[in-house]
């Protein structure tokens, strides 16, 4: 099963799909670790556009979403800026080789806040990002992450991500 050529060319041939050897041998791909998001997408009512909002009360420490990721080769830095803004720095998160990743599910849809109400952890072997509530979150509250180089933590002292991408920070 391959990707359509137009998809590969859009990403400049930088896609690297991962299927564990054991799954390949059985001819299947299991997604037993995937957890659907406890949120839903809607307009934020601000210039941020769409965001992810809690569908129910979420408690501190609770797993909000477990997302598979699509890894992009080291050439991900050559992708259009509009695409790079959706990516996580996989190499930074996993202390591994330089790569970007696109989190599937709502993972690449969370807006920025500092402090954020979600933290995230990369699981290199599984190639997944897990998003956890850092504090109790009320129903219909926007779910947010910190975009800066925090390694998934909720606070930062510098808005380096916004400067690097030439984006003006929008206050909530």
UniProtKB/TrEMBL annotation:
The GO molecular function terms of this record are: histone H3K37 methyltransferase activity
Keyword Endoplasmic reticulum assigned to the entry: answer is no
Name it.
Answer: SET domain-containing protein-lysine N-methyltransferase
Could you tell me which InterPro entries the record lists for this protein?
SET_dom, SET_dom_sf
Q: Which residues form the SET domain?
A: 37-148
Keywords per UniProt: Methyltransferase, Transferase
List the Gene3D superfamilies.
SET domain
BP-aspect Gene Ontology terms: methylation
């Amino acid at each position: 099963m391959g990707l359509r050529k137009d998809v590969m060319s859009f990403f400049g041939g930088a896609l690297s799909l991962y299927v564990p050897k054991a799954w390949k041998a059985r001819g299947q791909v299991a997604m037993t670790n995937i957890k659907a998001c406890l949120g839903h997408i809607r307009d934020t009512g601000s210039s941020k556009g769409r965001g992810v909002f809690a569908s129910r009360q979420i408690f501190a420490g609770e797993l909000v979403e477990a997302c598979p990721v699509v890894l992009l080769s080291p050439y991900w830095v050559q992708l259009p800026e509009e695409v790079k803004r959706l990516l996580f720095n996989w190499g930074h998160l996993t202390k591994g080789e330089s790569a970007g990743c696109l989190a599937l599910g709502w993972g690449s849809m969370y807006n920025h806040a500092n402090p954020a109400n979600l933290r995230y952890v990369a699981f290199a072997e599984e190639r997944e990002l897990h998003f956890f509530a850092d504090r109790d979150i009320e129903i219909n509250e926007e779910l947010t992450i910190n975009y800066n180089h925090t390694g998934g933590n909720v606070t930062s002292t510098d808005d380096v991500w916004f400067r690097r991408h030439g984006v003006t920070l929008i206050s909530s």
